[in-house]
Fold this protein.
Amino acid sequence: MVDLSRRISASTEAYHAGTVPDAAMGRQLGGSTLGVIGYGQISRYLCELGLAFGMRVLVTDPYARVVNPGITQMEMPRLLAESDYVVCLAIATEETENLMNAAAFAQMKPTAFFINASRGNLVDEVELERALDQGTVAGCAMDVGRAPDQMPSPGLARHPKVIATPHIGGLTPPAILHQALETVVQVGEILNGQIPKGAVNADHATRLKRLREGGRRQKL
């Protein structure tokens, strides 16, 4: 959000190319509206950061209930219409395939920025590029896309209104250690017939169901 608002990457690229960038007017996070699609663990962290920056924070998620009084939960169309920054952090399911499509981008402010840090298949990239070209969306940042391994698609990543990085969110030693230990805990929970904390679509966990049934048969 900071990079999109203050053109940090664009200025750096200009200096690297041997030119002096214009000191463009920026935008402050404080006082602006952050709209978050999905309310999982990462979304909760982001919402807290938004509040710390002095932003108005909106959330849409039909499967989660927001209890923080500083955050307003609403339907997605209204969130898109009122947000200055729309951050997509919903889980990837058949239901969320191309969640951000032509209709969704059309509901956003032409001055708003779109950020995808979830999964590439939540976004119709053809319509996103069209929205950027037509000025329906002011800019975009992403670290995921429809390229192999969920990387940003090179064609879209080179768009002048896009800031793209590889999917590097978890590539730090502390994050890797945390993920490894969390996996061990989750495996232990599954072996004990429990649903791992934070599991998505747990009601469709057919392998876990078989483990439970097998455990019951052994006890009998």
